[in-house]
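Sharing a chain and its predicted structure for anyone who wants a worked example. Both blocks are below, sequence first, tokens second.
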Amino acid sequence: MDESFKTESGTEKWPPHITVACVIEKEGKYLMVEERDKTSGEMVFNQPAGHVEAGESLAQAALRETLEETGWDIELIGVLGVSLYIAPTNGITYHRTTFLATAVHRAKNAILDPDIHAVHWFDYEAIVARSARMRSPLALAVIDRQRQGICYPLDLIIHP
């Protein structure tokens, strides 16, 4: 493998990790998770998000990750954006599709992913106040896109 595709520790930083996230707004508040960053050990905030599993569509991954991390069933409304982000803490490239969704209902007896410390509904000002503790700059950027009314139809994503 070309050495330019390795981090300083020798781990591969390519191919990118395929991830999804959801911005879920309800009555002026956004659904956020608080979790421990595995690289730094610090507590950080993010939208419900995670990796796409083999054989799973982007939409399926978004629904699953949100349920696993928050205990909420959601309905996807649209696509807020697609991004490539190279995490400065580990050099890994993340290819992230962010969906806009609405909360349908809290699932009964939901068991949250053990990495999730807490689930919060924050208003925009509370998120901005915590912006230094976001997992990545994408967390606030996609909320800003939603607040600007930027949203693409779900059929932007092609399912052959």
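Comments welcome. The first helix runs from residue 58 to 70.
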